[in-house]
Structure formats: C-alpha cells, structure tokens
Amino acid sequence: MDRRPLFLGLVFLSLLANAGAVGVSVVPQPLNVVLGKTTLEVSHLFNFTAADSHSNTLKMAFERYLGLIFSHSNSRDPDVQKMLSVMTVTIDSEDESLQLETDESYRLEISAFPPSAHLQGATVYGALRGLETFSQLVTYNFLSGKYQIQNASLSIHDKPRFPHRGLMIDTSRHFEPIMTIRKIIDSMSYAKLNVLHWHVVDSQSFPMQSLSYPKLWNGAYTRQERYTVDDARGIVEYARQRGIRVLAEFDMPGHAASWCVGYPEICPAPDCTQPLNPAANETFNLIEGLLKELSGVFVDDFIHLVRIPKISL
Description:
The protein is of the alpha/beta class.
C-alpha cells in the first residue's frame, strides 16, 4: 500500500534499516518473523472479520485500515479464489482499559496455499498493532495493477520491547489545533507508539479549560488558543481508539506563571509569579480541586505534575 505522510519520518527511516535485516518491511522490526517465498495476491474485495468479538474499537479500526491499505482503484481480480480475500481477527481479552501494563502482543499468520490470514491479539490493542503490521505488508504493484504480499507464507509473533513508547507535544509553548493533534496521534499509531505525553500547561500559557476554576485559562495566549474540557476528552478517546494513552503534564509549583493571570492570589507577589505560593491555603485548594477535575478528563493512571525550580542560596 502507499504509506501515509508521516510526522515520524526520521524514526521510520532508522527502523526500516533494521526491518530490512529480516527481509520484511515492517516497522518497528517484529520480535519473530518466519518468511516464505511466494507472492500472494490480495483481492480488492478484501475484508476483515472479527471472530467472537463485538468490540467497536476493532470495528472502527477495520474501517480505517481498509481505507489506508486499499487507496488505489482496482477492479481487476481475474481469479479471486487464488487471492487473499479475508482476514479473521480474534482477541483473547475483551478488556479495553488502556494502561502501562496493557498487553499489546499479537500473532499474524498468512498462508499462500490456500490463501488465508489470521490475526490473534492478546487484547484489542494487540490486534491494532497487528493490523498496522498487516497494512505495511500489503503493497500495490503498479505494473500488474494488483495488491500483493511478498514472502508468503509468513508468520509473525510480535510484542513491544518497551511498554512506554512516547512522543511529547508542548501546547503550552506552541499551541496546536485539535486537528493537528489528531494527525500526530495518527502518525504515532503508524509507528506503534503508545503514549502521547501532552505538555498542556507551563509558564508561557494555560490553554486548558477548568470548570472548577474558570479563570485559569485567562493565562492562554489568546481566547482562540484554548482547549475545552470536551476537546481534551475527545483527544483522549481518539488516542485510545488507536491504542495510545494520553499522559497529561501540568507543571507546578515551578513554571506556573500562567496560573497567576487568573488567580494572582496563589502566587508570591505581582513581580514574583513562580513558584506557586506554599504559604497560601488558596494554592492547595486550587491544586486539589484541579487535580480532582483532571482525573475525570485524563483517565490514565499517571499524570505529570512536579517541576521544582532551582533556588540560589
């Protein structure tokens, strides 16, 4: 298939070099690969089917990957019986909670004789990683006008080497529109990254809405460069559907000058806006209330908070 324009081009180039060592162009390199010597043609009528699973996450992934894989118009399948036309997907666990310990392993078996394919994921997120691998295996032959898979029959057993594989964006210093964040998340899924470290707030701006403390986002760059609570929930869910956790960062007590725009009473003085004032009860009341609110928006087990400033004595 034609690969999508990727934000993570440099990462992909380095990983492709390793993938070539096992004779299969999959990034990152799978844990274990067994290759055949047959070129298997794939029907333009190809489809995924979920065996004994009612996961909406999986069904939405099927739709995404069909569009990504089969991007060229093609109606020339002279002998469909000799082509791969369906892949069966099974998942061992229906639990769709996504945390650091989530199992993302999968097995992908593609047979050339007869044409068949089966993907087994430990969880739905393991299945997502297998779907991404499959999408990279399918290529379009412009000379024959057909989709194909090289090195069939093949078997891939894969699991991540690292449970945390992240990318950070800093919207406190460089505001990013919602659609841009979604494109970054899409690119991360193509590289099988699984953590979006979202540096939401720092000294430069406080773009995030708080319903408990509505003046906090007075510290945003402008009234247009803000995220509502529903925006944040939408990003978290968009990422989850692609097997990506959102780890939010709200720097405090240092790097917190933007907090003082809306609530100057939590800062030491008008000419000293950080760190937050530990001598004021208002400081701890605000922090406690904000963290309680954030726990209902950012559902990951982890949140990044502390930035202790250096103090010269």
